[in-house]
Design brief:
Elements (H helix, E strand, L loop, with lengths): L6 E5 L2 E8 L2 E8 L2 E5 L1 H9 L4 E2 H7 L2 H5 L1 H11 L2 E5 L10 E4 L2 E6 L4 E5 L3 E4 L1 H9 L1 E5 H12 L3 H13 L3 E5 L7
Antiparallel strand pairs: 1-5, 1-6, 2-3, 3-4, 7-11, 7-12, 8-9, 9-10
Helix pairs in contact: 1-4, 5-6, 5-7, 6-7
């Protein structure tokens, strides 16, 4: 996959932490109902995109040694599906993803007309942001989440997608996988 300068990336998967396997430190990511092992360089780069970011912004934060392994690591993360890229401003590829909300709903502040979520402190969400966050159960495909929220708020799908991206940047949503799941 050829990448342009203005590609925005989201991680896919849920970080599980580090473990020693075969005398090597690996970080594990839950992805498509399995734990995927990433070597330290892969995890350092993957985790830089955890809250969504542009490639050039991430490169600036890396050490020189990590920058040397950046291109092959990016290729591996993209090929395995642990990272998904979006051309600048085009989030149509999100429709396949499933998002998982982070935090605990703490109620509605009627005076300020904001919903409160506790995650790394208190977050205040507009009604639209709250509904995008609330619908992100890790099971519902984003296409359906987008449809429900857009219908409720009489807004465009683009507005819902942009809201989801903003919530990802704040750490309140994680893209967990792209597989089809059936609830029995």
């Amino acid at each position: 996959m050829e990448r342009s300068v203005n590609m925005y990336y989201l991680t896919v998967g849920y970080p599980l932490g580090a473990e020693i396997i075969d005398n090597r430190m690996v970080s594990q990511v839950s992805f498509q109902s399995a734990a995927v092992n990433l070597i330290p360089l892969e995890y350092r780069i993957w985790s830089k995109f955890l809250l969504g970011a542009y490639e050039n912004d991430v490169k600036k934060t890396l050490s020189e040694a990590d920058r040397n392994g950046f291109a092959p690591t990016m290729n591996k993360l993209l090929q395995t599906g642990l990272l998904i890229g979006f051309p600048d401003g085009d989030f149509s590829g999100m429709r396949e993803l499933r998002f998982l909300r982070q935090g605990i709903g703490a109620g509605l502040d009627l005076q300020l007309n904001v919903h409160r979520v506790v995650f790394r402190g208190k977050a205040e969400l507009s009604a639209l942001e709250y509904d995008v966050w609330k619908e992100a159960d890790g099971i519902l495909p984003f296409a359906e989440q987008e449809r429900r929220v857009a219908l409720k708020h009489a807004c465009s799908g683009s507005e819902v997608k942009e809201t989801a991206v903003r919530l990802c940047r704040r750490g309140l949503l994680l893209a967990v996988n792209r597989e089809e799941r059936y609830i029995i």
